[in-house]
Specification:
Elements lengths: L36 H14 L3 H17 L3 H18 L6 H11 L5 H11 L2 E4 L2 E4 L3 H8 L1 H8 L5 H4 L14 E15 L9 E7 L7 E7 L7 E6 L6 E7 L7 E15 L16 H5 L11 H11 L5 H15 L7 H6 L6 H8 L4 H14 L4 E8 L7 E10 L3 E5 L1 H5 L8 H13 E2 L3 E5 L25 E4 L10 H4 E7 L2
Antiparallel strand pairs: 1-2, 3-8, 3-15, 4-7, 4-14, 5-8, 6-7, 8-12, 9-10, 9-13, 10-11
Helix pairs in contact: 1-2, 2-3, 4-6, 10-14, 11-14, 13-14
Length: 506
């Protein structure tokens, strides 16, 4: 096996022994067959995972995988391999022990005190416990800077061109015919190239390749020159909740590297909702299927009693949904500083914790997590809300993965905001009135430098990713890759092999 990749979800198996008894005479019990060494290794893996011994669990699953494969049992070998991948995904974003985490802080934050280090590592840092050892998140030092604006401003003083980032927020170039104005036409290429040496020699590669999707603010989507058309099973899909094309490619049909590409183009609009009249917001149709969808709990946008209680505390006596959403936006900016989070672990770990709940309970969240918590707060109050996924070209011309939020108002439609971009204003030294103007813009407006792939986190596709596959399920900013025969966690490496190039053409 070349590499044991990341894996985190484990379904705890339960063995049921059924006894049959007659009314007048007991049947003779038959001794259950002794478990095989492979079964024993797999059962030990499940037990180790349940006891938060993730590294040992990965080893036991790897042992079971090899034994099942040697015994010629591909189904059980695949289950053990996927369990091995998920166990690895559970802990792989936590590579630092306490000494390494302290060293990272001292290197990245010059002059940091021993007291500050102890407080961060003991009370604020993101951790996981495996084999009774506390392990620290890989960006423990970067997250410290995000939480301490004074230190962050030192680091960004010469590296962050905030005037460039704020070019839409401060332009004032908004048409009175909104809310969709100032269109920008983008065109470019999406490309996935998986090296030949990583590919399996047998089996079928199942690939869900992301594409732009039509939305109110992203129109005239075109997809041309799709690679390997003979192996397209579904799509290209550019309408609905998520854009994608689905491939099934026999490994034997691949000569050299596997290359999939698509020429894409779309028109993105600036969204301007700054003149919403709260008194003119209509009534929700609470029986509408879309209302029900976007006010319900989902895998990563979870509506809990604690979330609802906090949302009610945030809005107080306010009952207007627009004003409530604006209060939630401000609360997240003021309460939850941006930080990187272990998405792979959260997606794979069992028992599952929704990303919105993770941020609510730990205070840590990046663009995706912040957007999901915003949506969870809104949904708990009966305001339809969702987390939009794709790319942004705001910070630089190179597309960068990103998430933001929308909430729905009758009479106005889907109103955008971007908590994460708004918080960038806290990382630079600028006059307070300009900082607030920037945050006000991103409270109900959005720049046109966006590529939307999915209208909501956890958007479903057809066919769906198999339930037992080790795949990052939350987003489709990168292709999902599933193989029943690969010894490597191919889906894990997708981001390394995938690229998007876009340029404004108008």
């Amino acid at each position: 096996m070349r590499y044991r990749a990341i894996t985190a979800f484990l379904v705890v198996s339960v063995l049921l022994l059924v006894f049959a008894a007659g009314c007048t005479a007991a049947t003779e019990e038959k001794a259950a067959p002794a478990p095989s060494p492979a079964d024993e290794a797999y059962a030990r893996g499940l037990a180790e995972y349940a006891n938060a011994n993730y590294r040992v669990a990965e080893e036991r699953f790897a042992e079971a995988y090899a034994l099942y494969a040697d015994a010629g049992d591909p189904d059980k070998a695949g289950a053990a391999r996927n369990a091995m991948f998920r166990a690895n995904r559970t802990y792989m974003e936590y590579p630092l022990d306490a000494a390494a985490a302290e060293a990272a802080l001292r290197e990245k934050v010059p002059g940091i005190t021993d007291v500050a280090i102890s407080d961060w590592l003991e009370n604020r840092a993101q951790t996981i416990v495996s084999e009774n050892e506390t392990l620290y998140f890989c960006d423990v030092a970067g997250d410290y800077l995000y939480a301490h604006f004074d230190e962050m401003r030192k680091a960004t003083a010469t590296t962050l061109d905030f005037d460039y980032i704020a070019r839409y927020a401060w332009s004032g170039n908004h048409s009175e015919t909104g809310p969709y104005v100032n269109p920008v036409r983008y065109a470019g290429v999406e490309r996935l190239e998986i090296p030949h040496e990583v590919l399996p020699s047998t089996g079928v590669l199942k690939i869900w390749f992301p594409l732009p999707v039509e939305t109110e603010s992203q129109t005239n989507v075109t997809v041309t020159n799709l690679s390997c058309p003979d192996f397209i099973v579904a799509g290209p899909v550019t309408t609905g909740a998520i854009g994608y094309v689905y491939y099934e490619i026999p490994a034997g049909a691949v000569n050299g590297n596997l290359v999939l590409s698509a020429d894409v183009a779309f028109t993105s609009y600036e969204q301007v909702f700054e003149d919403i009249d709260a008194a003119k917001v209509g009534e929700y149709n609470t029986s509408d299927p879309e209302y029900l969808l976007y006010t319900a709990s989902e895998r990563n946008i979870e509506v809990t009693d604690a979330i609802r209680e906090k949302a009610l505390e945030i809005v107080g006596n306010e009952t207007n949904p627009h004003l409530q959403a604006q209060m939630i936006y401000r609360h997240i900016i003021e309460t939850y500083p941006y930080s990187h989070v272990p998405h792979g672990s959260l997606d794979a770990r069992e028992p599952k914790v929704a990303e919105s709940t993770y941020m609510f309970e730990t205070g840590h969240g990046d663009c995706g997590t912040q957007s999901m918590l915003f949506a969870a707060f809104c949904r708990s109050l009966g305001i339809p809300a969702r987390a939009i996924g794709g790319y942004q070209m705001l910070l630089s011309e190179t597309p960068g993965t990103h998430f933001w939020s929308e909430y729905y108002l009758p009479g106005y439609g889907w109103v955008p905001n971007d908590v994460t971009v708004a918080e960038i204003a806290d990382r630079v030294t600028i006059p307070e009135e300009k900082r607030e103007a920037f945050k006000d813009y991103y409270a109900a407006n959005l720049d046109p430098t966006r590529l939307v792939i999915q209208k909501n986190v956890d958007a479903s596709m057809d066919p769906a990713v198999p339930d037992d596959a080790a795949v990052f399920r939350m987003v489709r900013q990168y292709p999902a890759v599933v193989s029943d025969t690969a010894e490597d966690d191919l889906d894990l490496f997708t981001s390394e092999f995938f690229s998007i190039s876009l340029a404004a053409v108008d």
